[in-house]
TrEMBL record:
Record organism: Penicillium angulare
Ranges for domain Cobalamin-independent methionine synthase MetE C-terminal/archaeal: 179-394
Protein name (database record): Cobalamin-independent methionine synthase MetE C-terminal/archaeal domain-containing protein
GO biological process: methionine biosynthetic process
Any matching Pfam family: Meth_synt_2
Stored CDD domains: CIMS_C_terminal_like (cd03311)
SUPFAM superfamilies assigned: UROD/MetE-like
One annotated GO molecular function: 5-methyltetrahydropteroyltriglutamate-homocysteine S-methyltransferase activity
Amino acid sequence: MAPELHQRPPFRAEHLGSLLRPQNLLDVKIASEAGKVSETELAAVEDKEITDIIKTQLELGYPAASDGEYRRHMFWGTFFPGLEGFEEVTDFETDIFRTYAPDIAAFLEAGHKPGETVLCTGKIKHVGSTYVDQFKYLASQVPADQVKNLKITLAAPNWYHLRYREGSAYPKDVYSSDEEYFGDIAKAYQAELKILYDAGCRNVQYDDPNLAYFCSEKFLNGFKEDSLNVYTADDMFEKYIKLYNDCFIGLPKDMHIGVHLCRGNFVGSRHFSEGGYDRIAIKLFQELNVHTYYLEYDTERAGGFEPLKHLPIHKNVILGVVTSKFATMENKEEMKKRVVDAAKIIAEGNNIPLEKALNQVGVSPQCGFASHREGNAIDWDGMINKLKLVREIANDIWPNQL
């Protein structure tokens, strides 16, 4: 990837992809699952609600509009179950999981098995995109010259690796090593990105809670104590960086790639992991070949802005200083100051003027509003107010810029 600043996308005001589903859509989805509504009827309702939410986003000043993830049950969608060599299982033992992974621990503490468990059962092969039709409908709702702005979110390539203990992510008679397994994962993402690109997609955001786990002392301690692990946590983080970079082999220069380091966004607005970006900042910012980082900075659990001193001058950071989890409104002037404070760190780290550093920055809610279809502990008006606030912050800091 050439070291040049890729912008528009990203834009000064961004959101993270998922938006609250209207109650009517939720009701029809539940009825469909119960066999009371046909798939055709469900699709018609999804189409209408997606059309409406795209219009809402554009009216609020968000060119990187998404479909709200309205066709998905959870944020990661259907990429892995759609690959040959993966299948969803319902009968499994919990000892296959890294029980110290924050999301797994949360499920087990609540007395539940981790949901939507997908396992590698054979050689992995991309056999058709489960995302491209979602993007095509999204693209059909805007003028042709705006399609390049639209955003689609993808599951992290490490999603069904980190959650499983050493030896459980794939059968040893199928893949002899992580490198071999990751190689086919990367090829699958290369194929997916090409299909999306050919459909007109130019803006992709990977949602990755796993990378944020490497900021968590609780996770790191568990990883160190796990006798099955053959790598250190730092080794594993480096392997994930390489996996991502391999996914981008052959990526066209005009395709924007971002990654959101999620701290968790579950029922009741629950978060999963804590810890500043300090210990992963250098490798994250300097070795991961993405254009943009969407970082959560709404609470103290994400630490301070100091790690941003390692952000290179050819990359963007979208600062999630506004929470999507609760309706309480942040003070706009305080949030503007935080954004400028973050830019000062970038400026100092690269020895550049503040104005130039601010050019690498945007603002957003810290996460989506509905990573799972039931959504966060915030109502529709609360979500709209948050999106308006983010746009106002951006307008004040970067006047007349999208």
